[in-house]
Design goal:
The complex is a heterotrimer of chains A (84), B (234) and C (739). Chain A has 84 residues and is an alpha+beta fold. Helices cover 33% and strands 32% of the residues of chain A. Chain A has a 3-stranded antiparallel sheet, covered by helices on one side. Chain C has a domain of 36 residues. Chain C is built from 27 helices and 28 strands. In chain C, helix 17 runs parallel beside helix 27. The longest helix of chain C has 21 residues. Classes of the chains: A alpha+beta (84), B alpha/beta (234), C alpha+beta (739).
């Protein structure tokens, strides 16, 4: 079976996010005072083959742990859906 | 006539002083620094938008800078026909601001690249290039992480057909093949002018090779061209 | 601050202190410190901040001279360059953070050293980076290499500070513990040096720049531990660098210094507010207090000790007369930065932390800075040292295929072109780079002056491992020779001393001897040490790195028009080999390449000869006698000669008759040698100067137009095609680094 995985990688809440902070300052300087808490992350899409959803989840988690995210500074969340 | 030149300074600009210095070294003239928060500026004959990282450029290069107050003044001057020169980050800002078509993407090897490249002068009739000769091969450095030029094919054709591609990455002998564009630019585009011919955007840094001591002088003719154009020279 | 009769034994361990150190604190304080106070001691008495294991050895180093305006102990050393200009420069390590998150670790290392430089009032104009990695054919190492190089570029390029040079070597000893040593240099007027002093009771203490978050907490004590695979949870939050913020901070800081609005300033590095506050008070002999309620935070709920130990980047501490505070705020407003008064200078000698009127901690500042215990650790000669000299050097000596060996050396990870690395660094921004990366030393022109400033970093750690004293001396001599080879007089040095665990007597033995050698060479060559950094505990799973006392050398040439570069300029120019070639194949790159073994006697060094060679090169450059000069280093004569040919694709023909093996002549690494080329017309004057300098030398050949490299030695001959050599040399690292 083929699955499509979306891995959303975000910096951990306590890690400085210069991109988010700069965007927030820029929006505020444009007069948008009602903006706050901008965080910038990455969305990684991939397709993988696996006999079942459980195996696919395990594999995708493993890849995210080892490569896609750096556990020293990033969290990730995974969503998985079967492809027809 | 005395030429009034300005270099715009965004908080993350870092080639602003370099342009002031090279403009002076080549033309003997001063250039004024203009802070990006200015809402009204004089009718400078030449405005240089310099290289650097205008606002850190974390989202897209130049994406935030285009909203700086000074940008509407630069658009005003561009519409008047005054000369606007965007170098590197300046080129990126001018495309984000809509003064020049297209966009600059990440280099094809995904790495920042700082090295001398060969450029072929594709149009030596512009106000920026008249002291070069048509087809001349010049050596100028690039220094960027996002310099791969892209544009929709039909527009790119139109740009090529109307002589608006001013510089192209090439081999030392002047031949052009995709491998000569270290950043992966479409059609090896390194610099383009606006339809009116008064706005030039280029990724390479002419101000970096304008003195012998720095290893080359191929950038000088860009500044002498501008001076001659502004002084009404043919 | 109540006394408790049975303190928890983990009390000191939590703060990386020993029982003895805890007792010393009790005695000094005359009472039991509370948790926060103990946390202050823990970081200030760590090796990283307090140099407790290295101080005794560092005292051996020469630190003064007429050119030294500021020696060690400040944010950076400062030397006089002439024409009213001075340079502030320093090198620092960021090894452990780079091992964990290579991009951010390297980037924040660069950011930290840049802040040290503009904290002295100097505008940073150049960076160098000295890097060491494990085997480049390992994918993990490739990722580290890519990440570190991208991080250095990402930060420096954005700041607009050119990265003009450095060095990169690969060796298995760095497999789990890479080295990232960053050097930054800034320029200032010689009469405008600022120092990190909290002087003037009643003056305000202002925190400027970024907000404080939970970044890198306990980074200082983390740097003072060995790495292993097990301790992921102990690791501090990785600091993330924001070069744009630092650019703003630099411009704003230089603007307030230009306007003379500041009494003293210091950047916040390891141990954050704790070390900057205590050090500023300690140096001025004053006290100061901070109100933690006033520290601008990035997130809610930071504990007292977290605020004090946070290593959030891009922050500075200023001491300001109250009347000037508004002017300071106006400048920081312009740059959209925070500037907040968080405390005041006092005259009670105490470093006091409060929240409003509630005192959280109060410690005499000098206990934190001046009463750090100083350890003379036991030393023991390692077993490897006794065996390593007796090496079988026949694989190189009897090799025979000299052209093949030269090609292999030029394509090896350690000797190939570093183009792949420095092309990722903006090395031209600022329009001062007169000699770009790839030469013996980088050369910058100085504003408003004909003078130029040369910079080089160097350390052959195999030499130091095999013979720490000699290796330490050679590191200094080599860096000085690099600088002299572009025509600049070596002036002063900074260092970054990277070693394993100093509590291991064999490691401490390396440290003591290497610093002995370093001190001897620095004295003999007239290049005082103006500051630097010690990085211990560079071990991974119990295995130490090669001892690596990296040297960053600067020098001055009076007129950049007289600069020398290493490449041959014209066919027909005469080539002279200056210096004596000896039967010294031990510890060579050639032996390592052929055997994979680090062994053999390290080449000998005569510091008097080294000094005379430097003097000759500087004088010959000044008199415009030479067309080129290149020092001989790893790979010896053959590699150096090939490098001289590459730029213009010229060739060279040499013929020598030294009574040593052909292998030693071609690839031996005898010290204090240089290859020079010159027009025939300058031969008499050059030979006279060589004689006057009492340097042995041989007119051995000439530059040829045909792109062929030939070295004859009796009946033996090395013959190779320069374009083949160049192809192998220039592309090797690009290929090796590709994942």
């Amino acid at each position: 079976m083929k699955f499509k995985a979306n891995v959303k990688v975000m910096l951990k809440p306590s890690v400085l996010d210069p991109q988010g902070a700069t965007l927030e300052r820029a929006l505020k300087s444009m007069g948008h005072d009602n903006v706050s808490s901008i965080r910038v992350g990455k969305l990684i899409e991939l397709v993988l083959e696996s006999p079942d959803a459980e195996g696919a989840t395990k594999a995708a988690n493993d890849w995210a742990d080892r490569l896609l995210a750096n556990p020293n500074m990033e969290n990730y969340s995974l969503t998985l859906e079967p492809l027809k | 006539m005395s030429v009034r030149a300005a270099v715009v300074v965004f908080p993350g600009s870092n080639c602003d002083q370099d342009n002031v210095r090279s403009w002076k070294a080549v033309t003997g003239l001063e250039a004024e620094l203009v802070w990006h928060k200015e809402t009204s500026i004089p009718d400078y004959d030449l405005v240089i938008v310099p290289g650097g990282f205008s606002f850190g450029d974390y989202l897209r290069c130049g994406a935030i800078a285009r909203f700086s107050p000074v940008m509407s003044e630069i658009v005003r001057l561009a519409k008047r026909g005054n000369l606007i020169l965007g170098i590197c980050n300046g080129f990126q800002i001018l495309t984000e601001a809509g003064l020049l078509p297209g966009a600059l993407n990440r280099n094809k090897n995904l790495k920042y690249l700082c090295l001398d490249v060969n450029l072929r002068v594709e149009n030596a009739r512009t106000a920026f290039t008249r002291d070069y000769s048509q087809g001349q091969v010049i050596r100028i450095p690039i220094s960027h992480g996002e310099g791969g030029y892209s544009l929709r094919p039909a527009e790119l054709r139109a740009l090529n057909d109307s002589g608006r591609v001013v510089f192209r990455y090439c081999a030392p002998d002047g031949s052009v093949s995709p491998g000569d564009a270290p950043n992966g630019s479409l059609d090896n585009v390194a610099g383009i002018v606006s339809e009116g011919g008064n706005v030039l955007g280029m990724m390479p840094h002419p101000e970096r090779l304008a003195e012998d001591e720095l290893g080359g002088t191929d950038g000088r003719a860009l500044f002498t061209s501008i001076l001659r154009a502004l002084n009404g020279g043919a | 601050m109540t006394d408790s009769p049975n303190p928890n034994p983990n009390l000191w361990r939590d703060h990386n202190l020993t029982k003895d150190e805890y007792d010393r604190i009790l005695a000094l304080m005359g009472r039991q410190p509370n948790y926060l106070e103990l946390a202050l001691f823990g970081v200030m008495w760590s090796e990283h901040c307090g140099y407790k294991n290295s101080k005794a050895q560092l005292r051996k180093l020469p630190t003064s001279g007429p050119q030294v305006l500021q020696g060690p102990g400040e944010n950076a050393g400062v030397v006089y360059l002439g024409d009213g200009l001075a340079a502030a420069f320093k090198m620092e390590s960021h090894n452990h953070p780079s091992a964990i998150e290579p991009y951010q670790g390297a980037a924040t290392g660069v950011g930290g050293i840049i802040r040290d430089i503009f904290a002295m009032g100097a505008r940073p104009v150049a960076s160098l980076n000295s890097l060491r990695f494990g085997r480049v054919d390992d994918n993990r190492v490739k990722r580290l290499l890519s990440g570190v190089v991208a991080g250095i570029g990402g930060y420096g390029n954005c700041m607009g500070i050119p990265t003009v040079g450095g060095d990169v070597y690969f060796h298995p000893s760095y497999q789990g513990n890479p080295l990232v040593n960053a050097l930054c240099l800034g320029l200032m007027k010689a009469d405008r040096i600022y120092r990190g002093r909290a002087a003037g009771p009643g003056n305000l203490v202002m925190l400027v720049g970024a907000r404080t978050g939970r970044d890198g907490i306990k980074g200082a004590s983390f740097a003072s531990e060995e790495l292993s695979d097990q301790d992921r949870d102990k690791r501090p939050n990785v600091q993330v660098g924001d070069p744009f913020m630092e650019k703003l901070l630099m411009e704003a800081t230089l603007e307030i210094l230009e306007k003379d609005l500041v009494v003293g300033l210091q950047d916040l590095g390891a141990a954050g507010l704790t070390s900057s506050g205590a050090e500023m008070a300690g140096r001025a002999g004053s006290g100061l207090y901070m109100d933690l309620d006033l520290v601008p935070l990035r997130e809610e709920g930071l504990l007292d000790w977290e605020i004090m130990l946070s290593e959030s980047q891009e922050r500075m501490l200023l001491v300001v007369e109250p009347a000037k505070a508004d002017a300071i705020s106006a400048v920081f407003d312009k740059w959209d930065l925070l500037a907040v008064a968080i405390g005041k200078v006092t005259d009670d000698g105490l470093f006091t932390l409060k929240r409003k009127d509630r005192v959280l901690a109060s410690v005499p500042a000098r206990l934190l800075t001046d009463e750090v215990p100083v350890y003379e650790r036991p030393i023991a000669e390692p077993a490897y040292h006794r065996k390593a000299k007796a090496a079988d050097l026949s694989p190189a000596r009897d090799h025979g295929d000299w052209a093949g060996l030269l090609l292999k050396l030029l394509a090896s990870p350690n000797l190939s072109s570093r183009r792949w690395v420095y092309e990722q660094y903006d090395h031209m921004v600022g329009l001062n780079t007169v000699i770009r990366p790839g030469g013996d030393a980088a050369l910058l022109r100085l504003p408003g002056s004909r003078r130029g400033l040369a910079l080089s970093s160097d350390c052959n750690s195999r030499y130091v491992y095999l013979d720490p004293r000699l290796g330490g001396a050679i590191a200094v001599a080599e860096a000085a020779l690099n600088v002299a080879a572009v025509g600049a007089k070596p002036l002063a040095l900074t260092n970054c001393l990277n070693f394993g665990n100093p509590e291991n007597p064999e490691i401490y033995w390396q440290f003591v001897l290497a610093t002995d050698g370093l001190a001897e060479a620095a004295k003999a060559l007239g290049t005082p040490v103006t500051g630097g950094n010690v990085s211990f505990y560079n071990e991974y799973d119990g295995r130490a790195i090669f001892p690596t006392p990296t040297i960053g050398m600067i020098g001055v040439i009076e007129d950049i028009a007289n600069r020398l570069t290493h490449h041959f300029k014209e066919p027909g120019h005469k080539i002279i080999l200056v210096g004596e070639s000896k039967e010294e194949l031990g510890a060579s790159e050639a032996h390592y390449l052929l055997t994979g073994r680090d062994e053999g006697p390290v080449p000998s060094l005569d510091l008097a000869v080294a000094a005379r060679l430097n003097g000759f090169l500087v004088e010959a450059a000044k008199r415009s006698l030479l067309a080129s000069a290149h020092d001989l280093a790893e790979g010896g004569l053959a590699v150096a000669l090939a490098e001289c040919c590459f730029d213009l694709g010229l060739g060279a023909r040499l013929s020598l008759d030294d009574p040593i093996s052909t292998a030693a002549l071609l690839f031996g690494e005898s010290q204090s040698r240089a290859l020079i080329s010159l027009p025939e017309a300058n031969l008499p004057a050059t030979l006279a100067l060589l004689a006057e300098s009492r340097l042995s030398h041989k007119a051995v050949g000439q530059v040829s137009p045909d792109g062929s490299l030939e070295i004859g030695h009796g009946r033996e001959k090395l013959k190779a095609n320069v374009s083949d050599l160049r192809e192998a040399w220039s592309e090797a690292l690009t290929r090796a680094a590709a994942l």
